[in-house]
Design a protein that fits this description.
The complex is a heterodimer of chains A (about 400) and B (about 625). Chain A has 18 helices and 3 strands. Chain A is mainly alpha-helical. In chain A, strands 1-2-3 form a 3-stranded antiparallel sheet, with helices on one face. Chain A is globular. The relative contact order of chain A is 0.11. Classes of the chains: A mainly alpha (about 400), B alpha+beta (about 625).
């Protein structure tokens, strides 16, 4: 940015500047798209397992050849370029999940197949977690939407929602209050049941389980989480009441979020204009070209621009969902669902974090954040689906 | 149903994001203001502060550069501290202490290392500065007083405080602003307009270039020079005469209302409030609660005016047609009512008419006149109001609405004032006779008395006393060039002026005559009290004198007030006469009178209330004589 102020002509393709690198990646993307579209659609289904395997190997290789950046060993360094295999693992896993579910022998209601699927999803997630990239790990939760859509038991959804509620309630209101709330809910459930025999034991069992989970979550929060993770949750749930301490937190651990909210807020209704954001130019928001890129959108394009970005993401995801539902081929449908879910999780966590709606989890905003690997991975992900979709007339 | 889960969650998230964006960007925000954007550094370019000249074009106040030694702790490289400290004349401990303080404030931002270096230190340092990385010189402009007089007139400048910054966004932390005197009252003219540069910062507070190619940047506009009405020679002479006395002198040019001299004693050298020792010196002046050098006695000393106020009563009596110039009243060492003496008087021939009443300052005469004014109407409150309105038309009893930074309203009571105090219809003229002789509830400041003298000298009008004579390229406020008329008709002034002339001719000031100048004056002696250990204790009377000269078309009107100077002609009268001679003739022929004033001190008198010992006042005191040779 400083170049523009000294009156020099900006070289947009300056490889020493992030924007130069990114522009080059964007141009190369067109070649990539051409390659993806020119490959036979069946290739992706047939080679899904091999692509998945290659991806797992590339993740394993990081433990030996990986380069550490910001505490995470997520990159291969080849010359001046770094490649992040975890970005590519997402579509590889999607292919594998689609392949497994669409297999005629797979029965999603059977525990055995469910466990196999869990292994397919959890393996890359675990490897990424071991490489200290918590953010990318969280993305794998997206596959729950796929599994639910494809027919795992209803009880899983209830369990997931209940677990989320127990966690939030326990941390926000404490164990006693949580048990009180869930106790009342269980009593209401009992009262509404016609057949009361045996129910009381069942519900009591559920209550004990909830109590155990609640205590477990609190212990996990107290003893297992790192201090910075604890702080993030504490802030998100507004557990800190002392205004002085809160101010202190805002200046230290909340610094990123605070600056990011200020930048977005300063954009107002219509923004300060392209390249005119004073907080962006001053690089006030750390990581503003990667995870916090949306703050720049907010500052320079204002409410109109940022709401527009939110809208196109929503439309993109819904469009993929509709197309997925329209697929005749089961593989294509599951794959479409996978990538819709992944886009959704990235979009929700990234923008939610930048605006302070959810705790800080560092993942990029697709097609916005700086990073060649991410850009290519999302492009491949999306265009494989476009290729599959283009091929649907050939299906029967 | 299962198809709808993700779909509805996506819609929900999209809506809540737009809601949040609306809250952050539209609802919970104020319009973008570049001054509040801490991503933009505002660098100010300070203009030259306007110069101040006296009425004859003598430069009184100019500017001088001052050099602050600054440092940016992070940029400091290892240095020869011994040599560095030697140049700056500080110890190594000082160096460490200041450096640590600056580092704690911010390692990246500049801090003042040593403020306001002397020219000598600056000269030595400048040659060697390049050896000391992280240090640099920042130039500031300070006031440079070309004189040692007029501290109360000129005032001073100092750093703005938080309250001012909050009230007026023009000022920033560390800016200088007029604090007293004309620096305060003409701040807007003198200060000029700061230039501003907007500089884009990064989050480490480093400059990364001009904001938007400097399109919003402005150049400074220099402050305007002003000429004030003060005559520096007269002011200096007044301050000389007031040495070893407390009090004030105000001299006004009656034809214009311009203030020729405005002396407050004790005073101080205005240069004390410039430079590195400013706050130390200011505190010393501020904390002196006994001599109160920061208290402008010409403008703020509000006391009973004493006898000079009698001439107002004479004028009101004539205007209200309750007395003629020839009518005489008897005086038996005072005024008696139902066999009780309401007010005393000194010995003089009796009975007296108006002329002798003024010349001899007869209390009984004025109590008679005053009672007739109040009793003219059946309701004393109405009479009081009529009297009050006449008195106020001389600029008494209210702020003069002038261009001086401080002032007091004085007090002219009206009917309501006494109705509140005594109850309606429960008082009469005999209750308030002290006002007849300028005691009682009447209070005035020296500038009001000088203005009153000017109005009498002008035979019925005055110009609001002011200190601004000329502003570079601007016209002064028209309220200073429009006459204010009193409610007394012109013909009533002649007998009163004659009476005041006879004060010099044959009355209480006959020993103060100045050869060749027809002075009209009026002596005053005002009783005063203080509380010592909660006991009301009387001190030696204040010496007051009001005059104008020459008798016709006066060029100077003056009020002198000397605390505890005893009778009017003793100190105040002498000083007034000398000031008039100095102003009109430019030299002093009454050297005997000058010598007396210069050699007599009231300092012993001022020590009495603080001494803790019982003390004597008035007649029973002796003056301290100073040997001028010492």
């Amino acid at each position: 940015m400083s170049a523009s102020h000294s009156g020099e002509v900006i070289s947009y393709f300056d490889m020493n500047e992030p924007y130069g690198k990114q522009l080059i990646f964007i141009f190369l993307t067109f070649g990539l798209i051409a390659v993806i579209l020119s490959i036979e659609a069946k290739f992706y289904e047939r080679f899904a397992s091999i692509i998945y395997l290659a991806s797992i190997i590339s993740l394993l290789g990081l433990f030996i050849f990986g380069k550490e950046v910001n505490g995470a060993i997520s990159w291969y360094g080849i010359g001046g370029i770094t490649i992040q295999p975890s970005e590519f693992a997402k579509f590889a896993t999607s292919l594998a999940v689609a392949k497994y579910i669409s297999d005629l022998e797979t029965n999603l209601k059977s525990i055995k197949d469910q466990l196999k699927l869990l292994l397919i999803i959890a393996l890359p997630a675990l490897l990424i977690l071991l490489q200290n990239d918590t953010g990318s790990t969280v993305v794998y939760a997206a596959f729950f939407f796929v599994l639910y859509r494809e027919g795992i038991q209803q009880i899983y959804l209830i369990i997931v929602i209940t677990l989320l509620l127990i966690s939030v309630f326990t941390l926000k209101f404490g164990i006693i209050a949580t048990l009180l709330i869930f106790g009342i809910v269980l009593i209401l459930v009992y009262a509404s049941r016609r057949k009361k025999r045996g129910q009381i034991l069942q519900l009591f069992g559920a209550f004990v389980l909830i109590a155990v989970i609640s205590v477990g979550i609190q212990q996990f929060y107290k003893n297992m989480l790192k201090p910075h993770q604890k702080d993030r949750i504490e802030l998100w749930l507004r557990l800190e009441k002392d205004p002085q301490k809160l101010e202190e937190m805002k200046r230290t651990i909340l610094y990123n979020l605070n600056e990011s909210e200020k930048a977005i807020s300063s954009g107002g209704l219509s923004g300060k204009g392209f390249m005119e954001g004073t907080r962006t130019t001053g690089k006030f928001v750390p990581e503003q070209h990667t995870d916090y890129i949306f703050s720049t959108v907010g500052e320079e394009w204002g409410f109109f621009g940022s709401a527009f970005v939110v809208l196109i993401f929503v439309l993109l995801i819904i469009r993929i969902l509709f197309l997925a539902e329209a697929q005749k081929n089961h593989f294509s449908r599951v794959y479409g669902y996978c990538i819709a879910s992944i886009f959704f999780v990235h979009f929700t966590i990234n923008i939610g974090m930048v605006m302070g709606l959810i705790p800080t989890i560092g993942i990029p905003l697709p097609f916005f954040s700086y990073g060649g690997s991410g850009l290519w991975a999302f492009t491949i992900m999306l265009f494989i689906f476009i290729k599959l979709d283009a091929n649907k007339i050939n299906e029967w | 149903m299962r198809k709808l889960l993700l779909f509805s969650v996506v819609i929900l998230v999209g809506l809540s994001f737009i809601g949040r964006l609306f809250y952050l960007q539209v609802y919970n925000t104020s319009e973008y203001n570049i001054y509040e954007d801490n991503a933009i550094r505002k660098v100010y370019d300070y203009p030259k502060r306007g110069y101040v000249y006296d009425r004859n074009g003598t430069l009184l106040v100019a500017n001088q550069p001052s050099y602050d030694l600054m440092l940016i702790p992070r940029e400091v490289k290892p240095l020869d501290t011994a040599e560095f400290c030697q140049i700056l004349n500080i110890t190594k401990e000082d160096f460490t202490r200041i450096y640590k303080k600056a580092y704690t404030y911010s390692p990246r931002l500049p801090s003042v290392f040593i403020p306001q270096l002397s020219k000598e230190d600056y000269a030595t340092l400048q040659e060697k500065l390049r050896k000391y990385e992280g240090f640099y010189i920042q130039k500031r402009s300070l006031r440079s007083y070309q004189t040692t007089i007029g501290a109360n007139v000129l005032g001073d400048i100092g750093e703005v405080n938080d309250a001012i910054i909050k009230r007026n966004p023009y000022y920033n932390m560390g800016d200088l602003i007029g604090k007293q005197g004309i620096e305060l009252s003409y701040e807007d003219i003198l200060k000029g307009k700061k230039g501003i540069k907007f500089i884009q910062k990064d989050r480490f507070n480093r400059d990364i270039g001009p904001y938007k190619n400097a399109v919003y940047d402005t150049l400074p506009e220099p402050g305007k020079d002003i000429t004030i009405t003060i005559d520096a020679t007269l002011q200096q002479y007044g301050e000389l005469l007031m040495k070893h006395k407390r009090g004030g002198i105000i001299a006004i040019e009656p034809a214009t209302g311009q203030i020729l001299a405005m002396v407050s004693s004790p005073s101080y050298n205005p240069n004390l409030l410039v430079g590195r020792d400013r706050s130390k010196n200011f505190n010393q002046l501020y904390r002196d609660s006994i001599a109160k050098p920061l208290f402008d006695r010409g403008l703020q000393a509000q006391y009973a005016p004493g006898s000079p106020f009698k001439v107002i009563n004479a004028l009101i009596g004539l205007q209200e047609n309750v007395v003629t110039t020839n009518e005489s009243f008897g005086c038996r060492l005072g005024y008696y009512y139902n066999g009780r003496r309401l007010t005393g008087c000194h010995s003089h021939s009796s009975p007296v008419s108006m002329n002798a009443g003024i010349a001899e300052s007869c209390n009984a005469y004025f109590v008679n006149v005053y009672r007739r004014i109040i009793d003219k109407y059946r309701d004393p409150a109405k009479g009081m109001n009529v009297w009050s309105d006449h008195a106020k038309s001389f600029g008494l009893g209210e702020f003069l609405n002038n261009d001086l930074s401080v002032g007091r309203p004085g007090r002219i009571p009206d009917g309501d004032f006494y109705n509140r105090g005594y109850g309606e219809n429960r008082w009469g003229s005999t209750y308030v006779v002290s006002n007849a002789i300028g005691q009682g509830e009447v209070e005035a400041t020296p500038i009001q008395l000088a203005n009153m003298a000017a109005a009498i000298g002008n035979r019925g009008y005055y110009f609001t006393p002011h200190i601004i004579k000329n502003i570079e390229g601007e016209i002064i406020d028209p309220k200073f060039t429009t006459p204010n008329y009193t409610t007394i008709e012109k013909q009533h002034f002649e007998p009163v002026v004659q009476g005041m002339f006879d004060v010099y001719n044959k009355g209480t000031a006959q020993s103060l005559k100045v050869p060749g100048i027809e002075i009209c004056g009026k002596t005053g002696t005002a009783e005063n009290f203080v509380k010592i250990d909660d006991i009301k204790t009387q001190l030696t009377d204040h010496s007051i004198f009001v005059a104008f000269a020459p008798k016709d078309n006066p060029t100077i009107a003056i009020a002198v007030f000397v605390e505890n100077g005893y009778w009017g002609s003793r100190f105040a009268g002498r000083i007034a006469s000398l000031m008039i001679e100095k102003y009109i003739k430019g030299e002093i022929t009454r050297t005997d009178m000058e010598r007396w004033i210069l050699t007599h001190s009231l300092e012993d008198e001022y020590k009495k209330p603080q001494s803790g010992q019982p003390f004597k006042i008035n007649r029973e005191t002796t003056l301290k004589v100073i040997d001028l040779k010492q």
